[in-house]
Amino acid sequence: xxxxxxxxxxxxxxxxxxxxxxxxxxxxxxxxxxxxxxxxxxxxxxxxxxxxxxxxxxxxxxxxxxxxxxxxxxxxxxxxxxxxxxxxxxxxxxxxxxxxxxxxxxxxxxxxxxxxxxxxxxxxxxxxxxxxxxxxxxxxxxxxxxxxxxxxx
Length: 153
Description:
alpha+beta; eight-stranded mixed β-sheet; Nucleoside Triphosphate Pyrophosphohydrolase
């Protein structure tokens, strides 16, 4: 049974980008062998519900990029730090999102992991490990193809 989306309340030192014009985010392409983890976003999310995406999150606190990646993977997939082999940042780019009148400052990150065991939290409805060729057939989050291209996948 899926957990319901909790009401967002910024922690001390955390920014709320919900209504901001510009928002910095990470979008992690999680790779195990030759397959990529794709998650279908919950139908209850504020931005692009039910679209398929990598593991993403706002860069909204004082964590380093590496710490943020580790935190998001643990929270959204249950993949612990000791199952992460490598983290590589791609080139940061802006993605104009006319649907939400927002510019996402996207930090694409390739994360190689040693497990394909996933336990989703409330943010996703389902997941699949897929080769890159199959990913392009999904209803992808706008800009996710740019993330893949940026990481040369």
